[in-house]
Design brief:
The complex is a heterotrimer of chains A (511), B (248) and C (255). With 511 residues, chain A is mostly helical. Chain A has one domain: Up-down Bundle (Cytochrome C Oxidase, Chain A). Chain A is built from 16 helices and two strands. Chain A has a two-stranded antiparallel ribbon. Chain A is globular, with a radius of gyration of 22 Å. Chain B is of the alpha+beta class and 248 residues long. Chain B has two domains: 98 residues, no CATH class; 107 residues, Immunoglobulin-like (Sandwich). The longest helix of chain B is centred in the N-terminal third of the chain and has 34 residues. The radius of gyration of chain B is 27 Å and the shape is elongated. Chain C is an all-alpha fold and 255 residues long. Chain C has nine helices and no strands. Chain C starts with 15 loop residues before the first helix and ends with a helix. The chains are: A mainly alpha (511), B alpha+beta (248), C mainly alpha (255). Chains A and B meet through helix 5, helix 9, helix 10, helix 11 and helix 12 of A and helix 1, helix 2, helix 3, strand 7 and strand 9 of B. The complex binds copper (II) ion. Copper (II) ion (CU) binds next to loops of chain B.
Chain lengths: 511, 248, 255
């Protein structure tokens, strides 16, 4: 039993401290992030020219190029959204929120450790399909009846389902922990309106999670029942595909706000510090968050505009979807207005934050287009949609990386190297734009196809994909620089002191 | 000084890149060739409004954002503002409700204007009576892994290629034999899901003879990529002759 | 930098969260690779047992046990209510499709239609028995409340026994329905077993929680300020309320 006596291992396996848990989240999400990034790079390589050969895809388990490509697309989406961006926010939430509100730890420290471990195992189980005969290849939306035993006999869907169930356990435990911590464990003199913005957004994030993840759990239980226990939830006679669509998107749409809200909180922490001015309109931002959270659960049908559902429902959900852009526009404008009268400095953390705002504007505006039930008739399922949500999620990722630069000194005592950081920022920023902008042009190209170029017109798509692939490589190289920076600065970075950025929130004075 | 120059160039490059991508979204569907039909016409009009307003709003935001970044950048020797964040102090409330209300109401008004156009267009997609041509001609579309089956009123069938006359209201009744597919003809701005045990209806009416690609736009399995076809629009006489000889 | 201290300045590390998570992962993997199932189950039970025993010793120092347990339970109940909501949605969805959609959709074969009726043909609920069984659950709600008032642990005992009897009764009902030909391969069967089965699972969870409470009371390990009793009783009432809804929707078909 030598391994259990190993002090380091024992310490990390048994820790329940919120800072430790935050750090473990941090490292695990970086791992998943790189898996997702590598998958995206492979996808981009396959698409870089028309009529690209698929020989390398055939090496994959199952000898089926299409299935392997589909599993890459599926796992890229699932890993990036569920196991990278969102948990990376939780890494900071675990580390920072208790410090910001003067709590000694999370309310239930052990439950918090359980959250992390179930999350880690969930990610590993979901991704393990690549090793065990093929990961899920049905798209991250898991549309029925493609997921049924008849059409997906392999274990990939089962493993992804098991991974997601573990994730839901993790998320539910986190929800309990954060709500109780934020509402009951604030230091005595902290009024709820005095809470820092990041804590506020985490509160809304977990409330939203509490609303949607049980529905995903129910949907997954039904799916598992159909696949393993001969139940008939999603059979054709019950129009199982529409039922799945409603259940999944009731979860799936608010999930993007679950990803977005913590990032808005981070921006609301970072921008004021580097603009040297208080956040503009903190209260309006909080009201907007309330409105946005409520609206986000009544817009899901915009993912089902062309499934043949009632036109009235489509029109109503078009309106709610367009309305939801208002609170988020208000938040963005408040963030930008914070700069007014300030004294703005541009360390890497701020560059990433400002870059995130810049990118998000385009993601948001194209989102308004897609909210229209009429425009969906043309743009749904095309690369235009792909470009749109990569602009929003790209902005979210830039914002979360801003938080890495901002809170790294808090977590590791040193400042990330600024020169490498700037290279990383410009690479990520221009790389994202270069990757995703050309895809806006491909309004007639279906998503998730791995060969194109059958006719003259399709050959033109190649020009756009070529530049997108170049952009993806730029992003990738930038992230390698980031990785190097993270490792190097751990030992060689400038000593940070207790409050390197002159922040006002309490985590900076905590030790 | 040198650092500041680099910074300025960085700012300019970033703004340029964002405006460039703004232009790209404003160019939605501009590389497409061979559009035809009454839907494309109306659709492009509506999309034009969305693009125009979206473009103007985002450019205004970028202009304002850039100006703020330039105007209020830290310069040598400049002092922190009085209300700069200080550790342990809760920042004073900042902000003017009238701006928030202005933004909210302005966006709301713009959105409702656009939504009116959207609702109009949704109704249009629902009503084949809006077409001008003969007909209607009803074709049953059934999706299979991985091909399209078209059944014409006289019982004839074609596969992957849908052959119909121009200047005719064509009603497609779309369903699937296995998994969820999606029937799309981008050139005509048509798209509808093919869902098991459900028939979805979409219609079109197009005046130009030609071939227009059909794609499946919902992931349906490992050969989803190959699920393509053509909408072949022909003169009515050709259609009458051809259908009789079963030219599939 | 790294946090070494925990609540009230002491290190309270524990391997149990890791082991529980591993156990749950193995349990799920066991659905695919059967031999892993017992391993996972043993690991989950073992680690949760140790977790609770360790936790008991920490309680005097934990403030969350006096302020956090009740809100945490409320949150869990909200999540569970939504979970049940989704299964109720399926009930109405399948019912509507059987009674209405089937008739507008002409492409069903006779064979398919024959297997679709709502409730399933040939299946009759024994409403008298169900009423008796429900009564057990309702009485157990009363005894649980009495426990809160009197803190006599015998009331807890009664609650646990009534809960177990209810589960037995449900097993008996399942057995009879199965003989009548109701299984999970029809829409009605799936909807019925999903709703009542998941409810039964929650009764079981409630019984486990009550048993732990009982053990804590008996071994004098329950601190006076703990919110555990009212939390667990609240959960028990929630399970009751869900049963009332199931009675109304599934058995009495008021909607
Ligand atoms: Cu298809």
């Amino acid at each position: 039993m030598n391994i259990l006596e190993n002090k380091t291992l024992n310490r990390w396996l048994t820790t329940t401290n919120h800072k430790d848990v935050g750090l473990m989240y941090f490292f695990a999400t970086l791992l998943f992030g790189f898996i997702g990034l590598l998958l995206s790079l492979l996808i981009r390589i396959q698409l870089y020219q028309p009529n690209n050969g698929t020989a390398w895809l055939d090496w994959a388990p199952g000898d089926d190029a299409g299935a392997f490509y589909n599993s890459m697309v599926t796992m890229h989406g699932a890993v990036m959204v569920l196991f990278f961006v969102s948990p990376l926010s939780f890494a900071f939430a675990n580390y920072v929120v208790p410090l910001q509100i003067g709590a000694k730890d999370m309310a239930f420290p052990r439950l918090n450790a359980l959250s992390f471990w179930t999350f880690l195992f969930g990610g590993l189980v979901a991704a393990s399909g690549f090793v065990f005969g093929g990961a899920a290849d049905v798209g991250w939306t898991f549309y029925s009846p493609l997921t049924s035993l008849e059409y997906s006999p392999g274990n990939g869907v089962n493993l992804a389902g098991a991974g997601l169930v573990l994730l839901i356990i993790s998320v539910t435990a986190s929800t309990i922990n954060f709500i109780v911590t934020i509402l009951y464990h604030r230091q005595k003199n902290m009024d709820i309106w005095d809470m820092p913005m990041f804590t506020w957004t985490m509160l809304f994030t977990v409330i939203l999670m509490l609303t949607i993840f049980p529905i995903l759990l129910a949907a997954l239980l039904m799916l598992v029942g159909d696949r393993l226990f001969e139940t008939v939830f999603f059979i054709d006679e019950n129009r199982g595909s529409i039922l799945w669509g409603h259940l999944f998107w009731f979860f799936g749409h608010p999930e993007v706000y679950v990803v977005l809200l913590p990032e808005l909180g981070m921006l609301a922490e970072i921008v004021p510090v580097f603009a040297r001015k208080p956040l503009y309109g903190k209260r309006y931002i909080i009201y907007s968050l309330i409105v946005g959270t409520v609206l986000s659960v009544i817009v899901w049908v915009h993912h089902m505009f062309i499934t043949g559902i009632d036109p009235l429902l489509r029109e109503v959900m078009s309106v709610t979807t367009e309305l939801i852009s208002i609170p988020f526009a208000v938040i963005m404008i408040c963030l930008i207005a914070t700069l007014y009268d300030g004294k703005i400095t541009f360390p890497t953390a701020n560059l990433f934050a400002l870059g995130a705002i810049g990118i998000f504007v385009i993601g948001g505006v194209t989102g308004v287009f897609l909210s229209s039930a009429a425009i969906d008739y043309h743009l749904r399922g095309t690369y235009y949609l792909v470009a749109h949500f990569h602009y929003t999620l790209g902005a979210v990722t830039l914002g979360v990386v801003a938080a890495v630069y901002y809170w790294y000194p808090l977590m590791f005592g040193r400042i990330l190297d600024e020169r490498l950081g700037k290279l990383h920022f410009w690479g990520s920023f221009f790389g994202t734009i270069l990757t995703m902008t050309p895809l806006f042009y491909l309004t007639d190209m279906p998503r998730r196809i791995y060969v194109y170029g059958a006719n003259e017109h399709e050959l033109v798509w190649g020009d756009y994909h070529f530049w997108a692939t170049i952009g993806a490589f730029v992003v990738f190289v930038a992230q390698l620089i980031f990785l190097y920076n993270l490792i190097r600065s751990y030992s060689h970075g400038r000593e940070a002191g207790s409050n390197p950025w002159n922040g006002s929130t309490q985590e900076w004075g905590s030790e | 000084m040198k650092i500041n120059t680099i910074r300025l160039f960085g700012l300019l490059a970033a703004v340029f890149a964002l405006v460039f991508s703004n232009n790209a979204l404003a160019c939605a569907s501009c590389i497409e060739t061979g559009t035809t039909g009454v839907h494309a016409e109306k659709y492009d009009q509506l999309m034009g409004w969305y693009l125009l307003i979206g473009g103007i709003v985002s450019l205004l935001v970028y202009a304002w954002f850039t100006w703020l970044l330039y105007k209020f950048r830290a310069s040598e020797g400049s002092q922190d503002p009085e209300d700069a964040p200080k550790l342990g102090e809760i920042p004073k409330h900042r902000g003017d409700p009238k701006w928030t209300w202005f933004v909210t109401v302005a966006i709301f008004a713009i959105l409702m204007g656009l939504t009116a156009g959207t609702i109009n267009m949704v109704e249009f997609y629902e009503n084949p009576e809006e077409g001008w041509g003969d007909g209607p001609l009803t074709v049953q579309v059934t999706a299979h892994r991985y091909y399209w089956e078209f059944e014409y009123p006289n019982g004839n069938k074609t596969y992957d290629n849908l052959i119909v006359p121009i200047n005719t209201i064509v009603i497609l009744e779309v369903t699937t034999d296995d998994v969820w597919h999606n029937f799309a003809v981008p050139s005509l701005r048509l798209k509808i899901d093919a869902i098991p045990h459900q028939t979805n209806v979409i219609w079109f009416d197009a005046p130009d003879v030609g071939e227009y690609p059909i794609s499946c736009m919902e992931l349906c399995g490992s050969d989803h990529t190959d699920m393509t076809g053509n909408l072949i629009l022909v003169e009515p006489e050709v259609y009458e002759n051809g259908i009789d000889e079963d030219f599939a | 930098m790294f946090g070494d201290v925990n609540v009230d300045g002491e290190v309270h590390g524990s391997i149990q969260p890791f082991l529980s998570a591993l156990g749950i992962a193995l349990l799920l993997a066991g659905l695919l690779i059967w031999p892993l199932l017992p391993v996972g189950l043993v690991l989950v039970v073992y680690s949760l047992w140790n977790w609770i025993s360790e936790e008991v010793n920490l309680w005097p120092e934990r403030s969350s046990i006096t302020t956090g347990t009740y809100p945490a339970t409320v949150i869990i109940i909200i999540a569970e209510a939504l979970l049940f909501g989704a299964f109720f949605v399926f009930w109405f969805w399948a019912k509507w499709h059987t009674l209405y959609w089937d008739s507008v959709q002409s492409d069903f074969s006779e064979e398919v239609l024959a297997g679709r009726s709502w409730p399933l043909q040939g299946v009759d609920f024994n409403l008298g028995f169900v009423a008796f069984n429900s009564l057990l659950l309702f009485v157990s709600a009363y005894t649980a409340n009495q426990y809160l008032k009197s803190t006599e642990s015998s009331w807890l005992q009664a609650t646990i026994v009534l809960g177990l009897l209810f589960l037995l009764g449900q097993g008996y009902e399942y057995y009879n329905l199965y003989i009548e030909g109701l299984d999970q391969t029809s829409s009605f069967g799936t909807a019925f077993f999903a709703l009542t089965g998941i409810h039964g699972l929650h009764v079981l969870i409630g019984i486990v929680a009550l048993s732990i409470l009982f053990w804590l009371v008996r071994s004098d390990n329950l601190s006076k300020t703990s919110q555990l009793p009212e939390s667990i009783v609240l959960y028990w009432h929630f399970v009751d309320v869900i049963w009332v809804l199931i009675l109304l929707v599934v058995y009495l078909e008021v909607i």
